[in-house]
Amino acid sequence: MNHLLSIEDLDREAIERICDRAASFAEVAGREIKKVPALRGRTVLNLFYESSTRTRSSFELAAKRLSADVVTFAASGSSVEKGESLKDTILTLNAHKPDVIVIRTPWAGSAQLVTGWSPAQVVNAGDGKHEHPTQALLDVHTLRSKLGALDGLDVWIVGDVLHSRVARSNILAFQKMGMRVTVCGPPTLIPRGIEALGCTVRHTLDRLAEADVVYALRMQHERMDQAWIPSLREYAALFQINAARLSPHQILMHPGPVNRGVELSGEVVDSPQAAITAQVEAGVVVRMAVLYEVLAGSRASAAAPSAEGALA
Amino acid sequence: MNAEALVRAPAAAVDLLVRGAHVLDPRTGIDAPHDVLVREGEIAEIGAPGSLEVPAGAELVDGTGRHLFPAFVDPHVHLRVPGQEHKEDLGSGTRAAAAGGYCAVVAMPNTSPVVDSASGLRSLRDGAARDAKVPVGFMPAITRGLGGEELTEMAELRALGALGFTDDGRPVVSAGMLRKALQYQRMCGGVIALHEEDPSLSGAGAMHEGAVSALLGIAGIPSVSESTMVARDAALAGYEGGRVHMQHLSAQESVLAVATAKAQGVQVTCEASPHHLLLTDEAVRSLDTRMKMNPPLRTEEDRQALITGLRDGTIDCIATDHAPHAKDEKEVPFEQAPMGTTGLETAFAAVYTGLVEPGVLPLGLVVEKLTSGGGLLDLPVPMIAVGSSANLVLVDLDATWTAGEHGYASRSSNCCFDGRELRGRILMTVAAGSVAYRERAFSLSPEGAAS
């Protein structure tokens, strides 16, 4: 694998390979010294055009645990604010000779564009409302850790699908892993044509009990001025995942940050069914696996050493 | 209208004999090999192949195996003057037109500043009188600054040669505003051309709303954002007895709305663009910014509806909406890129390759639709008939070429057909009696060269 641009590009085998490698890296996270020399001397450049706490920090941590050098550029306070184009920014940053560029932008397809402007391997950390592939990989990894095989399981993705890159990547990733996907939310927040991705669309939670996994999306307060929904209060009444709606057998997931009292009630966030903390933990090991895959992966798959080889 | 509507730089009237080309003019019904003699820029004689002598001093062009059509007219181009000359100017834009077989083009007013005043129009016409390789007509704005709130001085602009009026690039959002323009049209004439889009529906959309936009997570522009405005404005035109031209139809619902209005006797005409006739939103999957235009590429059903509309007469002409943008402006993420594709240099070959060669549309119909755009704005329609001004395009239908292989005459290269293998090469364009374009590898016969 050269770049990680989208889940659409990956097949099930690639998803499983990354998750398996993440599982072996999880062992490192349990050590006292949480660092391996796999990417020693390599440079990872994080370029974030949007604010991000957990994705950015988990990429940084992942790179550091692999002994790579990490530089993080945020759009605010940088040349981006001074009107530099994405292309010019990349051409400038190429001078630092990065081996990997991890990029998040508010624009679909920007990671793909960067591959044409830089010799570095590119990892998409979120491109507009298009994809967020490492989130989907860490979600699959989290579920596999808890449930084993995912074939035949039902997952409901609930909330603001329209504005969610997480939803798009996860619809694709969950289906590639053999799951049935239902998206649910008010019609104003479900994009027209989403059925073409193979998911079922529902506008009520009446049949939520059918789900094995409930994946709630973040409601973004800043969008409420555009009247996508009449009120957060009514949204919560119709679509909030709370104790009354969540069945005991279900696993609850959320990409964070959670709005307690909106898409999730406080009690379900704190319940043992919630895998939200496990998702964050998975974030580091899955991103370690992704960085390893894009840098050492092609060589590794040719020589076919296991991830253990990387740990040696 | 007082002033001459079309303007170009001074050019020598040509004397030439095109010998043996297959002459096709759907209006005169001619469709066979002929000799066509042009004297002092006028079609002087049409005869059997090989029957006409080359007059002294005239150029001889060997048309054997080639086709001669009336040259094309594009009622919808963006020449970017004034203010955006880094994208295009009157010289480069009209060279692109000539290279595409066009003998006249009509420039849109969404420039910087907007063409909405007598002084703006005058200065543009002066510029065209210096720089334009083919005659150019101008349509100033309907509303000042394209703001949608105050009418331009339509009567004065008409007296200065305005072909009609348009806020192209933007809709006239307020029905009441358009109604006033239609009322004023009754006094001063001039077709009102409309970019149909309800911004409350299209919003921040960057592509057609459908399965592809859902996958890409890009905000969609629904078909109804166009078709509801087409229906509204056709109703207004019917009510006021006005004449409207709907620009760049893209959606099947819009074709239906125009057909309905025409059946009710509304004076409405409309156009379709080569890119909407040949491409769909599937082309946007790669997020190639050359595929970003407004209205957006829609679905295969929409494309088929446009083709059917051309065939049954609902759609009156093919217009390119030639919209040049600088390289760096398009080298950005899709959502940031400006809307538009160039089209003048590829229109004929793209439509010929995509629709005529596979047998979808007859060649005669395509030639008719490529030449009819000016007539909708009351310009004379180019014809191959004795006594007509020579507006001719010589084409090699068998020639295969790759769009952009030698660059473009346009200053910009944001062409949605760039890199495609096309059939049908323009060899020579005669516009209003003067040679406006010769293909670089197309040489004259020995007699012609010697003369």
Describe the structure.
The complex is a heterodimer of chains A (312) and B (451). Helices cover 38% and strands 14% of the residues of chain A. With 312 residues, chain A is of the alpha/beta class. The model of chain A is unreliable at 300-312 (pLDDT under 50). Chain B folds into 2 domains: 16-68 and 388-450, Urease, subunit C, domain 1; 71-377, Metal-dependent hydrolases (TIM Barrel, Alpha-Beta Barrel). Chain B has helices spanning 90-99, 118-131, 154-159, 175-188, 199-202, 211-216, 224-240, 252-263, 274-278, 300-312, 327-330, 347-356, 363-371, 446-450; strands spanning 16-25, 30-39, 42-47, 59-62, 67-70, 72-77, 102-107, 136-138, 164-166, 191-194, 207-208, 220-221, 243-246, 267-272, 317-318, 392-402, 421-431, 434-438. The longest helix of chain B is centred in the middle third of the chain and has 17 residues, at 224-240. The A-B interface holds A 8, 85-87, 105-110, 112-113, 127-131, 164-165, 168, 191-197 and B 209-220, 222, 287, 328, 331-336.
